[in-house]
Design brief:
This is Protein BatD. Keywords: Membrane, Signal, Transmembrane, Transmembrane helix. The chain has 554 residues and is of the alpha+beta class. The protein contains 13 helices and 21 strands. α4 runs antiparallel to α5 and α5 packs across α7. The longest helix has 45 residues.
């Protein structure tokens, strides 16, 4: 997936979007509703910090009318301390309803008690606004000692959740230690030699004598197993001659082997007398008769043949010339090279095993969680980190928009066009832009004149025009009804388009969603944009949309 920096991506700025809304609202004119049956009053317009002002509203209606008074914190920037019970007075077929709200403020200044919406039989009526002045409480500097202002204290950044990274690091370290231990134990560690390995490392002469000794202590002769006895006897001496005297003895017949020994003796390469060669001939011939003709010599003859073979081994060892210094060095180098090859082979096998374990682990994790998710977890991904980070639930603007986001939305400065000030009382905007990628989330709350209806259609049209003015192509727009968890209904506009990348002709696929709520005197909007193939951003958008809640009381 390609990541595009928002510092270069031509997404419609929140301020420009708000300017569009303001322009639309400035073009809308609706006559104000008049209702002389609603009266409001306050007991005072001047209070000290922390004191209360009582705002009273009186409504005269028929006995069959249904009246809904404001609820909750609808008097912002003033705070609602208490909403008293409704006082009802009946006269003939008319009712007089009176409700009192206790309000306060803990900062000095002048505050506008905003208009309130009172609903009668489903129709909203708006009260007049009032200015409330909050004065500071005088301080007795004689009785109360004054102190200097404390200097600013630098607060260290919170590292909540650091323990997660410590645990992950310890688990990774533990896995590496286990793999390293297994690699050392099965590959690098010098393992103790078995008895067979120790015997294999003995010189040919010592190994032959050891095997003849073992044959002497065997039970072949006791169990009348002469064939096995002579087979092992001839194998020992043939293997010794082939390894020590370099005679092709194992694959030769009796006649061929004796002939080679005689030639070596005549040439002086092997100083064996003719009697020794003749004794060896007799032993080989006896062994052939036992193995192929199934003859059975006496036990004493078999034992004597073993002793003669031992003497032949000794005489052959003594008859061999001493190796020269050059031959000894060549043999040492050869053994050293064999050792290096063996160590290299063990290292390759170990590394291959370790690589196989790692690859197997990656494959298992990839098939279980997805290879893209695995890659993004190891290498990092901006929207994935947002999705899996600590989310924040907050209320933005007035009328408030409540939603959960991966980062807190920052208030945006919005300048109203002169032509919009006649119809718009206040506009509050909040947004967050991801440093990398197209992901953006923003909210706007607009308070208009009480008689104005929220211009949904004009707002939608202006949003699309804003995308087009930035160079977006192939814009697809869909519209459907959107309902919050509490049942507040609004409009959902969503779709996709090819968004341009600055300084190039390249276009990238992006998606957008806009939620619109409102009624007479107010409008609330939520706007989101993200890359089309960013699955983590899509999960973020789905979660945000599932938490959107709005208050429609102005």
């Amino acid at each position: 997936m390609r990541i595009i920096s928002t510092t270069h991506f031509p997404v419609m700025r929140m301020a420009r979007f708000l300017a569009f809304v303001c322009l639309i609202l400035s073009l809308s004119t609706v006559k104000a509703q008049e209702n002389r049956n609603i009266r409001t009053s306050v007991d005072t317009t001047y209070i000290k910090i922390g004191e209360q002002v009582q705002w009273k509203v009186t409504v005269e209606v028929d006995t069959t009318d249904q009246v809904i008074f404001p609820e909750g914190q609808t008097f912002s920037p003033l705070e609602t301390v208490e909403a008293f019970a409704t006082d009802t007075t009946r006269k003939n077929d008319r009712l007089t309803l009176q409700k009192i709200y206790a309000l306060t403020q803990f900062d000095s200044g002048s505050y506008k008690l905003p208009t309130q919406r009172i609903e009668i039989n489903g129709i909203g009526y708006f009260t007049d606004s009032t200015m409330i002045h909050v004065e500071t409480v005088p301080v007795d500097t004689i009785a109360q000692k004054m102190y200097d202002i404390k200097p600013l204290i630098n607060v260290e950044k919170s590292y909540m959740g650091w323990w997660k990274y410590v645990v992950i690091g310890l688990l990774v370290l533990l896995v590496l230690l286990v793999l390293g231990g297994l690699f050392y134990w099965f590959v690098l560690r010098k393992k103790p030699l078995t008895q067979e390995e120790k015997e294999a490392l003995l010189p040919p002469y010592d190994r032959a004598l050891l095997e003849l000794k073992r044959l002497e202590n065997s039970k072949y002769l006791i169990q009348d197993e002469f064939k096995e006895y002579y087979s092992e006897l001839t194998t020992i001496v043939r293997a010794y001659l082939e390894e020590e005297a370099h005679v092709a003895a194992l694959e030769s017949t009796t006649g061929q082997l004796i002939e080679r020994l005689e030639l070596l003796s005549d040439s002086g390469e092997l100083q064996l007398d003719k009697d020794t060669i003749q004794q060896f001939r007799n032993i080989l011939q006896t062994a052939d008769l036992v193995k192929f003709a199934r003859t059975k010599p006496s036990t004493s003859v078999a034992e004597q043949d073993r002793k003669l073979v031992e003497q032949i081994v000794v005489k052959t060892h003594e008859a061999l010339p001493e190796p020269t210094e050059e031959e000894l060095m060549q043999q040492a180098e050869y053994l050293e090279e064999l050792g290096r090859r063996k160590q290299k082979r063990k290292l390759i096998i170990g590394l291959s095993t370790l690589a196989g374990v790692i690859v197997l682990g990656v494959l298992i994790a990839g098939f279980k969680f997805g290879f893209t998710y695995l890659k993004d977890t190891v290498l990092g991904h901006p929207t994935k980190e947002l999705l899996e980070g600590e989310w924040i639930s907050s209320s933005y603007g007035f009328p408030p928009i409540i939603l959960e986001t991966p980062k807190v939305l920052v208030r945006q400065e919005v300048k109203l066009p002169p032509e919009a000030k006649a119809n718009i009382q206040d506009i509050q905007a909040f947004s967050y832009h991801s440093p990398i990628g197209l992901f953006t989330v923003g909210t706007t709350s607009v308070t208009m004149n009480p008689e104005m209806e929220a211009p949904f259609e004009q707002t939608i049209e202006q949003i699309i025009q804003g995308f087009e003015s930035q160079g977006t192509k192939n814009i697809i727009t869909k519209q459907e009804e959107f309902t919050t968890i509490s049942g507040v209904k609004g409009i959902k506009v969503f779709g996709s388009g090819d968004f341009p990348v600055p300084n190039s002709k390249e276009l990238v696929k992006g998606e957008y969603t806009v939620l619109l709520f409102g009624g007479k005197g107010f409008q609330q909007n939520v706007i989101l944009t993200w890359l089309e193939d960013d699955t983590y951003a899509q999960d973020i958008v789905d979660r945000i949309l599932s938490t959107v809640e709005v208050k429609t009381d102005v």
